[in-house]
Amino acid sequence: MSPRIEADAVVLDIEGTTSATGFVVDVLYPYSRSRFAALLTERAGEPEVARAMAGVRELTGEPDADAVRIEKTLNAWLDEDRKAAPLKTLQGLVWSEGFARGDLVAHFYADVVPALRAWHAAGVRLYVYSSGSVAAQRAWFSSAPEGDLLPLVSGLYDTENAGPKQEPESYRRIAAATGVPADRLLFLSDRPGELDAARAAGWRTVGVRRPGEPYYEQGAGGHAQAGTFDEITVVRRGT
Ligand SMILES: CSCCC(=O)C(=O)COP(=O)(O)O
Ligand SMILES: [Mg+2]
After folding, report:
1. Ligand 2 ion: residues within 5 Å (CB)
2. What is the position in ligand 1's atom list of the atom closest to the CA of 14?
3. Tell me, what's the pLDDT at 219?
4. Amino acid 220: pLDDT
5. Which residues does the chain have with pLDDT short of 70?
6. Ligand 1: which residue has its CA nearest to atom 4?
7. Which of 96, 152, 178, 212 has its CA 20 to 30 A from that of 65?
8. Where are the bilayer-spanning segments (predicted)?
């Protein structure tokens, strides 16, 4: 516990790490579930919606799936919290409109925002890498009850622009995009499989283990670990 890590940038997972899985599953998922039918029927002509619908058909091997069938698939994926890219795209669309309307407000664990502000003030760059789409991440960080956190964040990565979270190549892609050397990047996540992939790409890692989160019992799989962000000390080069 209380890891001290030398790093120039921190990359944040969201669900289970900055924010409670329970909030995502109990608040955000029902919100998207209740709006999929209208999205898939009334807005199927919009390029992003059309691309996501094509993505669902491809992933399920059902080229003729209509809106009703696709909605069923999306809801089944929601039930199993499957991080399928077309689902995340459609959720991102629905959620960003919900945040803009004021229907939704983001949630961060109490220790997170003070730590993000302190790291940012100390010159540590902050990035997000989540299965939630970039659109969803942008809405999430700009709609925190603590204020707009987006100015603290230097870049947003998801499974579309970086790749799957359990593959080292995705972390190499992010390192290249940020220009930060791999061994100066610190990844914070609740999932050992993601931490393993980041470590295989040469990153520093800390497993965030919060009681009640789905991966809590699994442990951190040999990674440094912390129960809250304020236990983590980030030391920049030359400081
Ligand atoms: C505001 S992003 C919503 C959370 C979400 O849908 C998700 O899949 C988060 O997964 P993560 O990779 O951050 O654990
Ligand atoms: Mg997570």
Report:
1. 13, 15-16, 190
2. 13
3. 84
4. 87
5. 1, 238-239
6. 132
7. 96
8. none
Angstrom distance (rounded) from CA 218 to CA 37: 36
pLDDT at 22: 96
Residue 95 alpha carbon, nearest atom of ligand 1? 1
Closest C-alpha among 171, 72, 71 to residue 129: 171
For residue 100, the tally of other CB atoms under 10 A from its CB is 12
> CA dist 222 to 16, 157, 193, 199, 207, Å?
18, 25, 11, 11, 9
Amino acid identity, position 96: S
> Which residues, judged by CB distance below 6 Å to any ligand atom, belong to the binding site of ligand 1?
13-16, 24, 28, 83, 91, 130-132, 136-137, 140, 165
**Nearest protein Cα to ligand 1, atom 2:** 132
pLDDT of residue 239: 65
pLDDT digits (tens, 9 = 90+) for 187-215: 999 999 999 999 999 999 999 999 999 99
Output the CA 186–ligand 2 centroid distance in Å: 15
Dihedral class, residue 81 (left if φ above 0, else alpha if ψ from -120 to 50, else beta): left
Strand, helix or coil for residue 217 = coil
| Cα–Cα distance for residue pair 131/133, rounded to 1 Å | 6
Please, which residues have CB within 8 angstroms of residue 93's CB and are 6 or more apart in sequence? 39, 48, 49, 135
How big is the CA angle at 93 (ends 60 and 113), to the nearest 5 degrees? 115
C-alpha to C-alpha distance for 134 and 140, rounded to whole angstroms: 10
One-letter amino acid of 41: T
**For residue 209, which ligand has an atom nearest its CA?**
2
